[in-house]
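idk why but the lab printer keeps eating my pages so im just putting this in chat instead. protein + inosinic acid:
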Amino acid sequence: MPKRPYVIDEMISAKTIAARVEELSHQIHDEFSGTDKLVVVGLLRGSFVFIADLVRELDLPVEVDFIEASSYGNQTESSREVRILKDLRGEISGRDVLVVEDIVDTGHTLKHVVGLLNAKNPARLKTIALLDKPSRREVDMSADWIGFEIPDEFVVGYGIDFAQRNRNLAHIGKVRFTGE
Ligand code: IMP
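predcted complex ->
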């Protein structure tokens, strides 16, 4: 549990998120229309709400799979080690794949996961992230679709946590520490 007290200031309302998810679903539909099955791969755990809303807006045959990665800062190099904690269950070779991320921050996680999945020879692999913090980027990586570009703020809600809390907020808010 976070030790410092904080409040959450609303940044993106539930209504605004829903409207954007609907818009994005149309663009994804246009990209993948005609596919026999789209494998939608969510990055655990932060993407679970986004992926649930997104697939319900998609009028396409979909399979849902998950992958969990965790990244560790490396004190000695300006690189991050990304470890896979849970791998895919299904096959993606020759399939159309959409990778769903909550936030692209430094970009290490998405870049690593895309590299791993591309090595499995999907027919087509695209990426979508609900949030993008371009000012934090450390590697050359961007998602094909972005819900919202945001400044360098720590955010929670809509599946995204602060020390495993606040994932169940319907909106996205920024964390503001209130002192001792
Ligand atoms: P990256 O490898 O630095 O791009 O890390 C992306 C991951 O860091 C995201 O999938 C989130 O789990 C986490 N993260 C980045 N920014 C935030 C934030 O503002 N709130 C909560 N988690 C975040």
